[in-house]
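User: Quick one: structure for sequence A, then sequence B.

Assistant: Sequence A:
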Amino acid sequence: MLCRVPIALLVWLAFSWVVSEVEAAGAFRHVDEEGVTHITDTPNDPRFRRISGFSGTASGWLKLPQAVAGSPAFSQEIRETAERHGVNPSLVEAVIRVESAFNPWAVSPKGAQGLMQLMPRTAYALGVRDSFNPRQNIEGGVRHLRYLLDRYPGNVPLALAAYNAGEGAVDYYRGIPPYTETRQYVQKVMERSGSAQPAVKAEPIQLIYRWEDADGTLTFSNVPPTTRVKDRR
């Protein structure tokens, strides 16, 4: 026997099912200081607020991938890339968690993109053609982090500060810049990587000065010359 069900009833049933799925998902949303939106079902910060009401992102064609939920869904790519470049995978994972909360589509107001929040110019220099491609973004971000770890050997906090604020700021202040955002960023990454310190201190870095005398003699010193400076590294 064929049973006819009113269209309105079918629509109501479908709507009720989707809403229950959203509520079951328990999604939470938070917009950080950089304007990056983070969505997760396991909030680890009191600033997250539950997403209420109907939303197509909880199920169906707009369902958010597990990556956006803040879990290390790219753990294999992170581990393989980090090991290939000699970087601690836990450090890379911590950078991604703080930068984008594992959201591969994250874009900051300043234009940083993807998992490791690469600026377009940096991505181009690193050969990253698509910053929203997780594998390419991780590869570029880890390479950049490796470069900074080599530039400030033995000083992970300085490398992280440079990742956040730029090398110029770190060199200018000869340590972690006195920016609240940068110092909080370094502290968060250090904590999440399992290498937290009591407090992030702006320890000075050693600069080496080079200058050339009139007779062509090159001199290197950690003390800046009183006259002209040919080069500084």
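Sequence B:
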Amino acid sequence: MDRLHLMTVFVAVAEESGFAGAARRLGMSPPAVTRAIAALEERLGVKLLNRTTRYVRTTEAGQRYLEDARRIIADADEADEAAAGINATPRGHLTITAPVLFGRLFVMPRVVEFLKLYPAVDVSALFLDRVVNMLEEGVDVAVRIGELPDSAMRAIRVGTVRRVLCASPEYLQQNGIPHNPQDLHQHQIVAAVGVTPTVEWKFSHKGESSSVRIKPRLTVTSNDAAIEAVSHHAGITRLISYQVAPQLASGQLKTVLAEYEPPPLPIHVIHREGRYSSAKVRSFIDFIAASLKQDAALG
């Protein structure tokens, strides 16, 4: 059998965790799927899948082969699209990821506009406050906040954001404005664990770095909850500037200790390295990168 066909069948079985699901996805009969996997394992001389009556899982060798097979299939698809011409109309399925709140505020409005421009494209958006493995989870484009580790990904810098301390004007009027990080010990602190996994906040002032160990009065599990709490005068919290941009613009919240903020965090649009760039990926990256670069909240 054709090697690329066998890889495609294997990827479908692994992702569907079963032969029946893979058969439906590929429009093949279950026996044909079974024969394809048997042929692939015989060709490689290694067991790729563990099978029981209840589940199908990749072996250790199968997991490594799965990652390589996904990459090879993606490269083949991109080569086909590239051969169709650089000006080919974007079409097909696009998977993107971004942090939850950034995705809702900045990515989703642009996705909606992109879908209006390109009716032949459909999008899956994974908004998660964790670093998604793009290769393992089949993601085409990601928006990342923070310094990037060395990788084979292509990255376009589209802006910066800051870690800011903020509180409501009413709270500050009643409790005073802190003038240095040590003053925070005299204030009620709201800690969002998604942003502050520890209770030690880092600061920078005139080139000098420092940190303050904070004892939160209120600890919450989401940035939205922290914003809601301080908007109701519960204390001072630390968030990323884009997360509270609407509240800061309206005056509902005010920043404090701005001169002690650590260096800004870069924002990148990244995508998987490849010899070719498909029309859908290339168009989306160009579209969202240009739009984010023009957003004043990310400057």
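The chain has nine helices and 14 strands. The first strand starts at residue 49 and ends at 51.

User: Thanks, that's what I needed.
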